[in-house]
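Dear support,

Our group has been running a series of protein-ligand predictions, and this particular one with D-glutamic acid is the one our PI (initials K.S.) wants archived with full inputs and outputs. We had some confusion internally about which version of the output was final, so please treat the block below as the authoritative record. The input we submitted was:
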Amino acid sequence: MDNRPIGLFDSGVGGLTVLRVLQRQLPQESVIYYGDLARLPYGSKTPAEIIAINDDILAYLSGRGVKLIIVACNTSSAIALEHSKNKTAVPLIGVIGPGANTAFAVTKNKKIGVLATEATVKLRVYSKILTSLNPSLEVFEQACPKFVPLIERGAAASPELQAAVEEYLAPLLRQGVDTLIYGCTHYPLIEKAIRAYAGNDLEYVDPAVGTVALAKEILERENLLAENHAQCEFVASVIQGGQYVRVDGRELLLRGASA
Ligand code: DGL
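Confirmed final output from the archive:
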């Protein structure tokens, strides 16, 4: 048994979609949630910038004594996970492998759509993993740069969001995909708008589910499960007086997620 917290991070409120699955599946686990609001969005940054950010947050969370780190961000998972694995002794998992495995298991017509940030789509990492599982899969990746700024602004029900949903979903639907991966942890927060446009016949894959199942497997195997000790701490970054600072993020993050 091990009551140390799990570290979980994202550029903003997106990782809260992973946290909510974690709290359902592993309610006894304590968590430090890091929302990197000062450096949002990650999706338009270069790989070098994303790797540097990742290293910085991993060092912070490792220093806080976490027992496992979940990179609750597709962009960081795609770009920095492999690079960072050698840099910390703490077990580290990302969201992309679990998301790809779930999509592979549920698609029937072998046509899978991926909604993701520009940085994630550029790497084609979902396509690579999925076609390594089955070369006859067809994967269509769609960059959605307008989604994260609108979600973080609390504009999930705005006409701008509706227009962006149509712009990004229409090409995927024209390809006849039967499965859609939320390839950015922010996107389950606009699931209502996405389903309203694309309908309920598609299989919607939230990689958070497979990611938390993997976390559970590791904690069980390594004998790291906690016993009834759950606490959740929210840390956010902000720019104050031109400086990057970490603050108590409860208000900032939870307000953003419910807007
Ligand atoms: N939620 C993140 C992801 O899964 C990051 C989005 C962003 O900051 O652009 O990719």
